[in-house]
Structure formats: structure tokens, C-alpha cells
Design goal:
β1 and β2 form a beta hairpin. The relative contact order is 0.18. It is globular and about 55 Å long. It is α/β, with parallel strands linked by helices and 373 residues long. Helix content is 31%, strand content 16%. The N terminus is likely disordered. The protein has one domain: Spore Coat Polysaccharide Biosynthesis Protein SpsA, Chain A (Alpha-Beta Complex). InterPro entries: Nucl-diP-sugar_transferase, Nucleotide-diphossugar_trans, UDP-D-xylose:L-fucose_XylT. Keywords: Cell wall biogenesis/degradation, Glycosyltransferase, Golgi apparatus, Signal, Signal-anchor, Transferase, Transmembrane. Its main location: Golgi. Belongs to the glycosyltransferase 77 family. GO terms for molecular function: glycosyltransferase activity.
Length: 373
Amino acid sequence: MRSFCFAFLVVAAASWWPSAYADAPTNVSLPDLANSFWVDSGLKMPSKELVDAVNRAKLPVLDAFGHRREIILMSIGSEFAFQRLFDVFLSNLQNITFPGANGVQDNLARHVVVNVMTPGSAEKCNVLAAKYSCYCVSFANDAFTLGNFHVFSNDFYGIGFTKTATILDGLTLGVDVLFLDADQVFFRNPLPYLLAREADILVSGDCHNHGDATPMERLPPINNNIGFVYFRPTAMTTRAIYNWAMWLRNIARKGEKPWDQHTFAPAVEWVSSHVSVRHLSMAMLHSDLFPYFCMGPCGCDLRGVPYFHNGRLPARPRGADCDPDLMREWYNYHMPCAGDMNVKSNLMEEYVRMYLRVTGPINSRSAPMTVLS
């Protein structure tokens, strides 16, 4: 049986943040919350606001196989996430720069679409949009509280409905979707790496030595982490995400707990096992290149580790930096399992400073990327 990392510490909207609303519970049942994302004909269609945002945000690029792709970065945020976390997240993405098709400098923050999931939070997101040129879309559900999304509360499980709907909306508009939780920072542009892989779905995962260049029918039998997932807009990818959303709804309607992290791999693999790797393929990204805090403070060391074995989790000595040889290869560092959003934001800034000390400027090790008009 798969074991799974505690994803409640992955999602920015689920983290604890003190406020006057901190103990305000949701007033809706899980079945009603699940049903609020659906209409008689299925999941709600993308709003005009989201369609417009995707059309403005999409980034046309050439992949490693000579194919044109159009990519957007998508995220979701609650009231607390816009107090500080998203500012750190977007500021970092603004530093991942590259030449646009017209030769003018572009950056990843300009290609982010944020679905705002709590009522009354759109203005906070719009302030950040004006600062970083990202796009905010109202996806507010009145069932969500403005307070803390307590772990395993109905609000917490509602994150899964928001996430699957967000990803599905992007895919049905025909663009590649890189879905990101906001509690992570980037040191180099991940898109050239992703564009050199052929799998339809790429997801981060625990410290383990496996390949990610060969498309597979199933993921390695270890923890995956859905705070960093890349999707190509194929028919079967879209079908798999719809299947994932339906699983969550059916679990909730039975009165059980629909955890998005726990259901992602089985829901997607249920489809891939039926249609074969030819029609739906996936791979788990190299964990030493895409580390996260659940592994430990210095990520994953796979040097000398046999194929398909667990890697080492190096400690970070007090007052010292992580191993420069490991850090040099990092694309990002994700902060699940790190604490509340204040702690996450501090860690994100700390890891940027550490990278600058040890490796050099953010984005200095990014591979080139061909942006199309």
C-alpha cells in the first residue's frame, strides 16, 4: 500500500495563521460542499473571467521535440495566503526571467493564474496582480470560512475540489498546466526540464532513485506530492483529472473524507491502466532536483544510490548551509511539513538567501528556452 506525506502541510490555504477568524468553522456538510462544485451536467464550466486570464497568461514555447506548447502556471489561494505567502512566491517567480519572443525580458510570475477560493479575498489578490502582472480569478465558494482551514476540516477537504476544478479548467482550454502550491521558491526555470520530458503527467515525489525521462503507466510506489504537478492537455489527461474530481465527490457524498493527496495516484492510474501508456503516461520527477521539506532541510541525496532504492536525507548542521553540490542542482524547494504560513514564508526567504550564498544568483543556472510568438 502506498504511504503518503501529510499533504495538509503542503497546501498554502490549509496552513494555520492566527486571526480573529481562526476558529470559525465551515457551516456546510462535506456532501453539500462537494455538490457546490457541480451542476446537473457535471463539474462547472470555466468562467469567462478564467478563460480570459488563461488566454492572456499562456506562454507559447517550443519543447525539446520541436512541438509548440502553450503553458500556464496555476495556483489556488485562500484569505491567509494573500497576507504574505503569495507575495514571497510571486516575487521569487518574477526573478525567473527569460527572453520573450520579441526579445523583451519576461518572467514566470506573468504567466500565473490564481483561483481565489475564499469570498472577499479577490482584492488582496488583485493588489499582488498589479505588482507582479499575474492574473487573479474569483473562484470563491461561500461555504469556505475566512478563518483557518483546520487539518481534516471540511474546509481542508474542500481544497481538493478547488484544485481539481482549477486544473481541469486549464486543461479543457487546451493549455499545458503547471500546478503549484504557493509555499515554494524556484532557483532556476523548471520549464526547460519539463519540456524535455514526454510524459503527460509529471509529479514530484519522495527521495528515491528512479528515472523520469521514460513515460510510464504507473508512478513509482512511493509518496507523490501534488504541490508540483505538470499536465499536458491530452484527452486522457483531462479524463483522468475529471475522474479524480469524481472520486473526491463520491467519497464526500458517502460521508467519508475526500483527501486530494491520497486519491491522486490511484484515480489517475485507474485510467492509465485501462488505456495503456500509449494514451496516458506519467513520470515522477527526480527528487534530488525537485526537493521538498518533508524529506528534510537539505532535500535528497541520490549520489551512489542504486536504482529504485531510497536515497539519503542529509541533515543541515546548525548554522551551516546545505551541501553546495546538492543545492547546485535544485530547481525549487517546496515547504510542506514546515509549519504555518509565517514559518513557510520565512523558510522560503531563508532558502533563497542560502542559495545566493552557496550557488549564486537566482536563475543563473536556468537552461535556455525558446519562446514563440
